[in-house]
Write a structure and sequence with these properties.
This protein is of the alpha+beta class and about 220 residues long. It contains 9 helices and 4 strands.
Length: about 220
Amino acid sequence: MSGKPKLHYFNGRGRMESIRWLLAAAGVEFEECFLETKDDLTKLQKDGSLLFQQVPMVEIDGMKIVQSRAISNYIATKYNLYGKDLKERALIDMYVEAVIDLNELLMTHTFQPVDKKEQHFATIVDKATNRYFPVYEKVLKDHGQDFLVGNRLSRADVQLLETLLMAEECKPDILVKFPLLQSFKARISNIPTIKKFLQPGSQRKPPLQEKDVPKLMKIFH
C-alpha cells in the first residue's frame, strides 16, 4: 500500500480543494479516489470509513480523517504550515476562518437559483471588497512582510491565495483596489510547490459548472 495520503471525494473542488492546496503547498504527493455514483458513497458509509457518514475523507498515517477543518488542521500541523507558537496559530486560525466564510460564498454561487444569482454575486463582491480583502491588505501593510503570519509560509497564505484566485474567476478585476494583495498573489503563486500546482495537468480542480450539478446531486442525494 502506498504511503501517500488518499483523498476520497468527487472529482471537483468542493470542500476537498483547500486540502489539495495544503498538500500541494507542502510538496506532498497524494492519490485521489473519486466518488462517481451514489453506490460509491454508500460503500464508504457501510464499511465504517466515514465517521459522520460524509466526505471529504482523507486516509493518512493509518487514520481515516473526516471533517474538512480537522483534516486541514492535521495537514497544516504535520507539514509545518501552522505557525511556530500558540499566538501565531491563533492569528492563522482567525485569518483562515474568514477565508473559509468567503470561500463558502464563492463555492455555493453555482448552486443558486437563477433568480437569486445576481443578488448572490453582489453579496460576494460586497463582502470580499468591503469586509475581507481590506483586512488582509491592512495586515500586509502593517507588518510589511511577505507572508501573513510569522514571515513564513502558513496555511493562511495558501488558503487566502486559493480564495483570491476563486474570487478573480468570479470577477476578474476584484483585486483592483488592493495592490498589496495583488503582489501577495503573485509572490505566493511563485513558490515552487504552489507554482507547480497552478500548472495545467495538476490535481487542482476547475471551477464547478452548472452542467456538473445534476451529477453531484445523484451522488449526494
